[in-house]
Design goal:
Layout (H helix, E strand, L loop, with lengths): L1 E6 L6 H4 L3 H10 L2 E6 L7 H8 L5 E5 L12 H8 L4 E10 L7 H18 L3 E6 L2 H10 L2 H4 L1 E3 L6 H9 L3 E4 L9 H9 L5 E3 L21 H12 L3 H15 L12
Parallel strand pairs: 1-2, 2-3, 3-4, 4-5, 5-6, 6-7, 7-8
Helix pairs in contact: 4-5, 5-6, 10-11
Bound molecules: zinc ion (ZN) (2 copies).
Length: about 260
């Protein structure tokens, strides 16, 4: 069995897909996906996201503000209040994205630091988004003791030097369908070096559908394509990759109840 460690189930275009959320989850379960972590991007939309997924035992939530959605100062009190919910197993996604935004660096940095403090306070792991902001991301993680709550750098596309620094802080690295892209040779080399016991897999759906689904709306069922690709890349069996990344998921997000009843 496998896990989609990062998806945005409330952002899927169900009309375009011609499917309901029930269908999307059923399709994924048929592809051996046993758990879904549905990731929040704004505090305003969090309550409705939670409502959409609340009936599903195999879906967990995170709570936080995406760096590109952080328009103003982080409302840390509100974050704490919302993130205290039982279904919330992680804080984020938070982080820094300098690729798409040149003028909000300071707002992003303050918000990121605020999320780390809340994660430490609530003892829930962090989901970190980082793009074109390697040094600042690591600096803020260190300055705010991100190693205490731990977490994951999700949809990782940076270099090995950064991966190594995050691994040294005890963090996990999550890989999305980007690794299957033809031009992703640098990332493929990085993935070969990530230790198996720190690796997670995700879709980040509805964005970034993996080969052979490129151009389509990404959905959690496609995390299986990511798993097959990485198993190949690492020269191990699909089964071994599935087992290890699933164990990793439950070790990191230890508030999630294991579907198969095992304890990691
Ligand atoms: Zn992200
Ligand atoms: Zn995301």
């Amino acid at each position: 069995m496998i896990v989609d460690s990062h998806c945005h189930l409330d952002r899927l275009d169900f009309d375009k897909l011609g499917l309901s959320l029930d269908d999307v989850l059923a399709n994924a379960r048929a592809k051996q996906v046993e758990h879904f972590l549905c990731v929040s991007v704004t505090l305003e939309q969090f309550p409705s996201m939670l409502e959409k997924i609340s009936q599903y035992e195999d879906v967990s939530a995170s709570c936080g503000v995406h760096p590109l959605d952080q328009k103003d100062k982080l409302d840390a009190d509100r974050l704490i209040q919302l993130a205290n919910h039982d279904k919330v197993v992680a804080i984020g996604e938070t982080g820094l994205d300098y690729y798409y935004s040149k003028d909000t660096h300071q707002v992003q940095q303050e918000s990121f630091a605020g999320h780390i403090d809340v994660a430490n306070q609530l003892q829930k792991p962090l989901i970190i988004h980082t793009r074109d902001a390697k040094a600042d991301t690591i600096d803020i993680m260190r300055a705010h003791n991100a190693q205490d709550c731990g977490g994951v750098l999700h949809c990782f596309t940076e270099d090995w030097a950064m991966a190594k620094q995050a691994l040294d802080l005890g963090f996990y690295i999550s890989i999305s369908g980007i690794v299957t892209f033809k031009n992703a040779t640098a990332l493929q080399e990085v993935v070969k070096q990530i230790p198996m016991d720190r690796l997670l897999i995700e879709t980040d759906s509805p964005y970034l559908a993996p080969v052979p689904h490129r151009g389509k709306t990404n959905q959690p069922a496609y995390v299986q394509d990511v798993a097959y690709y990485i198993a190949d890349l690492k020269g191990i069996s699909y089964k071994a990759l599935a087992e290890q990344t699933t164990n990793n998921f439950y070790s990191l997000f230890n508030l999630v109840k294991r579907q198969d009843g095992r304890t990691t």
